[in-house]
Amino acid sequence: MAAFLSAEWLQDLDRAARASPALTEIGRAGELVVEQHVTGTPTGDVSYHVVIDGDGARVVNGPAPEANIVITTDFATAVSLHAGDMNAQRALASGSLKLTGDIDQLVQRSDALKALDDVFASIRATTTVTVA
């Protein structure tokens, strides 16, 4: 089992994304790059990004050269979102999740975000979370 936000976990996400025909199909509508920053993890800040395009989808460690949407949370919020104890809307409303970039694209491409959630469900189920 991979630890949440570890390099191994990102590799697991990448394998799942690359294997998804649904994400490849969604990518044909145009490229979408979503970057996530998680601050204050036990190992420091973590950034990674997801690219969905006509070639499929992939997860890349580190910030994106150019992201459509950037999501920033602290570690506690990221853990709560990962566990399903909080949803993104509530985190956004409370100020513990910040969005920057093309917010209209986020709304227009909600199908991609839903598909990512579905594709990554099996990874979430086998992920360990260390909070200290």
Mean pLDDT: 92
Strands across the major sheet, in which order?
Answer: 3-2-1-4-5
Number of distinct beta strands = 5
**Major sheet summary line:** 5 strands, mixed
- Structural class determined from secondary elements: alpha+beta
Report Rg.
14 Å
Tell me the strand percentage band.
25-35%
Tell me the number of helical segments per DSSP (H or I, 4 or more residues long): 6
Unreliable residue stretches: none
Principal-axes shape call: globular
N-to-C CA distance? 18 Å
Secondary-structure element order, N to C = HHEEEEHHEHH
Level of helix content? 40-55%
Please outline the helices and strands:
Elements: H1 7-18, H2 21-27, E1 32-41, E2 44-53, E3 56-61, E4 69-74, H3 75-83, H4 88-94, E5 97-101, H5 103-108, H6 110-125
Parallel strand pairs: 1-4
Antiparallel strand pairs: 1-2, 2-3, 4-5
Helix pairs in contact: 1-6, 2-6
